[in-house]
Amino acid sequence: MNIGERLREERTRLGLNQGDFAAVAKVSKTTQFNYEKGERSPDAAYLEAVAAAGVDVLYVLTGQRSSPSEASLAADESELLNHYRSIPDQDRAALRRFGSALAESAGKYTMRKDSDS
């Protein structure tokens, strides 16, 4: 997968079409199209703008997902993470499957084919 494909994946994950995403990034729809096709490479200002919109820029550039720090989590996210950490492994697997199903039904996520999901 290349930068353009990962950028398109992140845009889709956020539920935005090319025009809306281009507006967030302060570029034209044609520029966004060219980034996703791999015909042009985004600059730092673009990456900064899409990062503010929730794009995992490290993933776009390297293919490696960044790990959010616990300090950056909202209170409800932190609470959910604490609950998750306090339950047995078998229940964690069930919770991951449930969360993935909910996210997929909302159209914001494509389920991975893992051995435990």
How do you describe this structure in short?
By secondary structure, the chain is mainly α.
SSE layout and pairings?
Elements: H1 3-13, H2 18-25, H3 29-37, H4 44-52, H5 57-62, H6 75-85, H7 89-105
Explain what this protein looks like in three dimensions.
The protein has helices at 3-13, 18-25, 29-37, 44-52, 57-62, 75-85, 89-105. Residues 113-117 have low confidence and may be disordered. It is elongated, with a radius of gyration of 16 Å. It is mainly alpha-helical and 117 residues long. The two termini are 23 Å apart. α1 packs across α3 (29-37) and α2 (18-25) crosses α3.
Stretches where pLDDT falls below 50 for ≥5 residues? 113-117
Record field, number of beta strands = 0
What is the mean pLDDT?
87
Overall shape: it is: elongated
- Helical fraction equals 55-70%
Q: Describe the oligomeric state of these chains in a short phrase.
A: single chain
Put simply, the count of helices is: 7
**From N to C, what is the helix and strand string?**
HHHHHHH
Our estimate of the beta-strand percent is under 5%
**Biggest pleated-sheet summary:** none
Radius of gyration (CA) equals 16 Å
Terminus-to-terminus distance: 23 Å
